[in-house]
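Box S1 | Example of a co-folding query
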Amino acid sequence: MRKPIIAGNWKMNNTAQETKNLLNELIPLVKDAKCEVVVCVPYTDLYAASEILKGTNIGLGAQNVHWADKGAYTGEISADMLLELGVKYVIIGHSERRQYFGETDETVNKRVIQALKKGLIPIVCIGETESERENGLTDEVNRRQLTIGLKDISAEDIQKIVIAYEPVWAIGTGKTATDQDADETIGKIREILGKMFSKDIAQGLRIQYGGSMNAKNAQGLMSMPEIDGGLIGGASLKAQDFSIIVKAADNF
Ligand code: PEP
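Box S1 (continued) | Returned holo structure for phosphoenolpyruvate
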């Protein structure tokens, strides 16, 4: 059995004070969750979040990590910096990083390797753009992103990661993949992972869906056999909505 994981990606939202308010509202709403609950907050909110989340069932995540231990990388954040603040998870390869900040499959791979070396759980994002989908390239794009992004990861390490399938056209747009579409594509991603590692390993890996998941559509998506949770952007900024998504995951 794969334990569902619901992770909020706050993106560039919330000051430290707003973080305290939102988490204080969220903690009691999800305290009995059976699924894994994570919030990936901006770097400047990590300290405030780590203080508030102590002793709760909500895990703390960041939204990126650099591949070097330390050094002349102005504006970047190292794994040790995150670990000291109690960070356990890190989103890597989000489509906004790929689209606006030059992230490539190769840099994703370097970050994943570093996160694993340091004991952080990478949430590795993959997914096709609208035009790639229209051209029938969805599986090919996912295969490329997985093959390069997860290159040189051992069979042991791969079992620690979470994959987030996030069709780019569904992120922040209000357009969601249908339950069946998302399930089918995630099934194919599992097949690709099965060939890269082994069928058994692929069966054990958690693969989230992400892209305009919200309080209304979460139940349907979560009921699908291949979908093991969600990476939630917009709806993770509202405690009530996020907790409804957590409850949807708890039902399966
Ligand atoms: C995301 O940022 O990973 C995401 C899925 O965003 P949204 O839920 O807003 O589409």
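The pocket of phosphoenolpyruvate is lined by residues 9, 11, 166, 171-172, 210-213, 231-235 (CB under 6 Å). The first strand starts at residue 5 and ends at 9.
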